């Protein structure tokens, strides 16, 4: 937000010099990001009035203007399309130097002499508009230096406000802060309420629970069509970053910047019957002032007439009822909307307006009458018109009420760490507009109507600290109790999990917990999600139910930047909506795409596949010291490839997923390479197994190999589980060293070669015992799984 120091001076009896003012505001929490001049140096540029304009005899696009600069008239050759007799515009006289280094001298253009240059706003460095001459107010004195005439000797402060300080989104709000910080006095408002000149009013209806509890309106008839606001107003709007449009619209913007109260002006002839503040009806449509047509839903608050919506309440007006060049009768609207009724509504349609930013943070509910009187005064001064009476429609029972807050001065001193007297605390709070009721120990403090962010004792302590001055709080060493946390051996440090993945070539990613709802729905079409009521943007409007959407988006970004081999993982939380409410689940998730191994002369360029990532995942799960407890069972998941998906099971409990991204998703997301994903819930999946003593055998181990043929449907896990159950503790290790399909194996079956390492801790196993165990294994596998010993 940009604030003019000159404008602040209208509200204060004294203002520090700009650099000091910026420092004071920054230390008080209103961070000033920049201090800059309102305009570049413009020596030699004066106010000129075009007395006459004639066509150039040798150029159709040029004209010859006689321009009065007070005591003399000079001849100027000009190419601006809007140059006309009677118009006042900036004139750069001979010898002037314009921004960009242009030196103005006497010139001859197509045979006609020119003694200076009439200027556009862009040529003066005031605006980007180069469509024509900068039109000045008729009341400016010819020949007066432009810097003095427009008050360009001004300084602008660029203030970065935190979201809680909506009260400072105005000149008045910043002036209040400056008065509190410096001891300056706020000036009384120079407001002359205009008595009604006509009796005209317009019906207004507020629907209960609609979110609008106060609506002030006023009819003004007979406004001059196409009237423009005065130069001083247009210049202040420009310095604040707003483009002047016409008198009525400029007045509403000016009042919003000055007082912090958004307001709107309607063309009265385009409103049917009455103004109704209500919720939108399903599928209602509204064309906004920027020309976009939007479809409304029942959660959106609108301003309507008897037949149609005319504005998106608190955000933007409608095109149909907006002020036009031939508007004669104006209806001013100044409303108070509850913040919850406006928050996030504009962002659903990609709109973040000056009005919505203020209403979302909270506008003073007592300000509407003052803002309406100020707007009436300004419009009638610059565009004429006859005002009707102020009409106030409200729901008094729904107006916000600030409850008294308990404050303990001793606790405030303790928290701040400075000995601030009770008198200083009271002075600070009253300077901020708060009502203070002092008691013997506890005080009762009531926040002013414009402070929506002060609700608890800690808020008051924060206000005291920042106004007192953080730089005045002495440094002090404070004792702190320390305790050793209890750390179970079953807790697997996430750092060790991350280290295991980093050693396998992965990079850690950090993505938003918010995701695009449409993207998440493509991954999980039937899953319930938590929608944000006030999202940062439309692309970040839902809480993630998996870490995968963020990782896939990161993969897309990397592949667009020509990264052919990507390995990413993230440790974070997902947010599951279920019958028991919202659950936050901690997870480790990863994604791999591209070549299985980094490019080098000794390896091929095979793409990463399911089993490559499974090996990475098992390396990570090794941190639990219980890899054997994890089983990968074939399953189906809407995000993953139907034939390359596994549910990760630990001791009968599902703890995660592993699989290749579904081909349809790969195509729709335009991924260059196939991606393999995994996700493991940490609280159930990454629990370490307690170490236990196991005697090391002094006796030799014996290995026996089995070559079996089994049906394709039989998994290696089934074979391993049956073998372990039969052999028992004598089985020290088991390896699968070959799987074969092809010649010599009947269709629908496969050959699996398994090595058994057998060993006893108390004695040497005999050949008879070993052969007996092998026979038992063979018989069990044949009976349970239809296995047969391969004879060749």
Describe the structure.
The model has no long low-confidence stretch (mean pLDDT 91). The protein has six domains: 2-38 and 155-182, 2-Layer Sandwich (Phenylalanyl-tRNA Synthetase, Chain B, domain 1), CATH 3.30.56.10; 45-149, Beta Barrel (OB fold (Dihydrolipoamide Acetyltransferase, E2P)), CATH 2.40.50.140; 204-398, Phenylalanyl-trna Synthetase, Chain B, domain 3 (Phenylalanyl-tRNA Synthetase, Chain B, domain 3), CATH 3.50.40.10; 405-471, Phenylalanyl-tRNA Synthetase, Chain B, domain 1 (2-Layer Sandwich), CATH 3.30.56; 494-685, BirA Bifunctional Protein, domain 2; 702-789, Alpha-Beta Plaits, CATH 3.30.70. The N and C termini lie far apart (83 Å). The chain is built from 20 helices and 38 strands. The longest helix has 19 residues, at 767-785. It is elongated and about 125 Å long. Helix 6 packs antiparallel against helix 9 (368-383) and helix 19 crosses helix 20. The protein is an alpha+beta fold and 792 residues long. The strands form ten sheets. A seven-stranded mixed sheet has the order 26-29-30-34-33-32-31. Strands 5-4-3-6-9 form a five-stranded antiparallel sheet. Strands 11-14-17-18-19 form a five-stranded mixed sheet, with no helix packed on it.
β-strand amount: 25-35%
Q: Low-confidence parts lasting 5 or more residues at pLDDT below 50?
A: none
Number of domains: 6
Q: Roughly how many Å apart are the termini?
A: 83 Å
CATH top level label of the largest domain: Alpha Beta
């Amino acid at each position: 937000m940009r604030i003019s120091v000159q404008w602040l001076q209208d509200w204060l009896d004294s203002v520090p010099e700009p650099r000091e003012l910026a420092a004071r505001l920054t230390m008080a929490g209103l961070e000033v990001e920049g201090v800059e001049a309102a305009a570049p140096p413009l020596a030699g540029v004066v106010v000129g009035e075009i007395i006459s304009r004639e066509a150039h005899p040798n150029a159709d696009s040029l004209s010859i203007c006689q321009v009065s600069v007070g005591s003399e008239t000079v001849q100027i050759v000009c190419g601006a399309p809007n140059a006309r007799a009677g118009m006042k515009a900036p004139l750069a006289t001979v010898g002037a130097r314009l921004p960009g280094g242009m030196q103005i001298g006497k010139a001859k253009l197509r045979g006609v002499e020119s003694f200076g240059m009439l200027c556009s706003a862009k040529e003066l460095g005031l605006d980007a508009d180069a469509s024509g001459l900068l039109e000045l107010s008729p009341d400016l004195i010819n020949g007066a230096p432009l810097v003095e005439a427009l008050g360009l000797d001004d300084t602008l402060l660029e203030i970065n406000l935190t979201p809680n300080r909506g009260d400072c989104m105005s000149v008045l709000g910043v002036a209040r802060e400056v008065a509190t910080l410096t001891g300056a006095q706020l000036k009384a408002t120079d407001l002359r309420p205009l008595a009604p000149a006509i009796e005209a009013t317009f019906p207004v209806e507020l629907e209960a629970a609609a979110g609008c509890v106060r609506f002030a309106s006023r009819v003004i008839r007979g406004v001059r069509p196409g009237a423009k606001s005065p130069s001083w107003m247009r210049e202040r709007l420009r310095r604040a970053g707003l483009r002047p449009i016409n008198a009525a619209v400029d007045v509403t913007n000016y009042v919003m910047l000055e007082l912090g109260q958004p307001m709107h002006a309607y063309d009265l002839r385009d409103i049917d019957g009455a103004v109704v503040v209500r919720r939108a009806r399903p599928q209602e449509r509204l064309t906004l002032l920027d020309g976009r047509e939007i479809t409304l839903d029942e959660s959106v608050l609108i301003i309507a007439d008897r037949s149609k919506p005319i504005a998106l309440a608190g955000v933007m007006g409608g095109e149909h009822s907006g002020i036009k060049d031939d508007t004669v009768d104006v209806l001013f609207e100044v409303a108070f909307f509850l913040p919850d009724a406006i928050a996030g509504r504009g962002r659903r349609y990609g709109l973040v307006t000056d009005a919505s930013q203020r209403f979302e943070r909270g506008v003073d509910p007592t300000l509407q009458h003052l803002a309406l009187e100020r707007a009436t005064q300004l419009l009638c001064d610059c565009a004429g018109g006859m005002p009707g009476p102020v009409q106030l429609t409200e729901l008094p029972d729904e107006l916000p009420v600030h409850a008294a807050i308990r404050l303990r001065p001793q606790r405030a001193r303790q928290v701040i760490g400075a000995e601030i007297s009770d008198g200083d605390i009271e002075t600070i709070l009253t300077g901020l507009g708060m009502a203070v009721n002092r008691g013997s120990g506890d005080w009762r403090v009531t926040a002013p109507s414009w402070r929506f962010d002060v609700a608890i004792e800690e808020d008051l302590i924060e206000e005291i600290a920042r106004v007192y001055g953080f730089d005045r709080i002495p440094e002090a060493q404070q004792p702190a109790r320390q305790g050793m946390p209890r750390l179970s051996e079953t807790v697997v440090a996430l750092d060790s999990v991350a280290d295991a993945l980093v050693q396998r070539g992965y990079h850690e990613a950090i993505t938003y917990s918010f995701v695009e709802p449409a993207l998440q729905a493509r991954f999980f079409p039937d899953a319930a999600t938590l929608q944000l009521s006030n999202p940062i943007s439309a692309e970040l409007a839902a809480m993630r139910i998996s870490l995968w959407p963020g990782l896939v988006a990161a993969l897309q970004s990397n592949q667009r930047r020509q990264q052919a081999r990507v390995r990413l993982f993230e440790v974070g939380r997902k947010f599951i909506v279920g019958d028991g409410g919202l659950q936050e689940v901690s997870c480790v998730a990863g994604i791999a795409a591209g070549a299985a191994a980094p490019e080098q002369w000794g390896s091929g360029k095979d793409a990463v596949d399911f089993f490559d990532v499974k090996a990475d995942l098992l390396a990570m799960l090794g941190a639990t010291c219980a890899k054997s407890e994890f089983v990968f069972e074939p399953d189906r998941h809407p995000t993953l490839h139907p034939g390359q998906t596994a549910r990760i099971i630990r001791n009968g409990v599902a703890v995660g997923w592993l699989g290749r991204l579904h081909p349809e998703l790969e195509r729709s997301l335009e991924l260059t390479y196939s991606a393999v994903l995994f996700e493991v819930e940490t609280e159930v999946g990454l629990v370490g197994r307690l170490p236990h003593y196991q005697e090391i055998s002094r006796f030799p181990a014996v290995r026996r190999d089995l070559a079996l043929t089994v049906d394709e449907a039989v998994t290696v896990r089934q074979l391993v589980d049956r073998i372990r159950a039969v052999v028992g503790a004598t089985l020290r290790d088991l390896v699968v060293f070959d799987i074969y399909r092809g010649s010599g194996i009947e269709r629908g079956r496969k050959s699996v070669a398994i090595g058994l390492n057998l060993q006893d801790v108390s004695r040497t196993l005999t050949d008879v015992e070993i052969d007996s165990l092998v026979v038992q294994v063979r018989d069990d596998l044949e009976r349970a799984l239809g296995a047969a010993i391969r004879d060749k």
